[in-house]
Description:
Helix content: 55-70%
Order of helices and strands: HHH
Oligomer: single chain
Distance between the termini: 55 Å
Strand content: under 5%
Number of domains: 1
Shape: flat
Number of strands: 0
Amino acid sequence: MFRDKRKIMTNYDVVKKLIGEIRPVGDASRDPKILENLKAMCELHAEIHAAIDSVAYDFKNDKQGSVKTVCDFANKYIDSLGIAD
């Protein structure tokens, strides 16, 4: 049998492909583009963070088991970031 040797891309792999390199290389002709990529990555991170935070906040008093499980996960993730309120 032949094995499929293609790598399964993670969500992060897809984002890296879409946004591009974010680590500076010390080349004045390339680093401005890398800075723009980093700004795009930071903007995406802020949007994702806000979405997770809204789940934690909007459902904090919900008593339904499945909703509470999702909310608890969101809260634990936010807490793991160590960001002060």
